[in-house]
Specification:
118 residues; 6 helices; globular
């Protein structure tokens, strides 16, 4: 398999968009002086992780798909402190990520990247 599965490309781009858009939104919402103070820094750490996951999924890094699963799983956990609707939404996204990131085509793509020295 020479090409990246379209599902990997879509998830990677989604993570990149979520990370960048989330950072811009939260920076605008919080303001520059408050954005990187106290617990607000974690918002940007989470957005940065999304960007890293997206970029490295595009490069075929196997561990990036595990990080993407951990990233969305953390959203499931945090959602328990908010609302049942958010929990359900994040669980559905987690299941979709897991399904598409670990399909045979995706496994072959990441395996090929690993054996090629990447």
């Amino acid at each position: 398999m020479n090409r990246r599965p379209i599902s990997i490309t879509i998830i990677a781009c989604l993570l990149l968009v979520v990370g960048v858009a989330g950072s811009i939104f939260h920076l605008h919402e919080l303001g520059l002086q408050q954005a990187f103070r106290g617990e607000n820094i974690w918002i940007f750490v989470v957005e940065f992780v999304a960007i890293v996951c997206g970029a490295l999924l595009l490069q075929g890094k196997n561990w990036a798909r595990w990080l993407a699963i951990a990233w969305i799983a953390s959203h499931v956990v945090v959602s328990f402190f908010d609302s049942g609707r958010k929990v359900a939404t994040h669980v559905v996204i987690l299941l979709l990520f897991a399904y598409f990131l670990f399909r045979p085509e995706a496994n072959a793509y990441f395996r090929r990247k690993e054996t090629a020295g990447g």
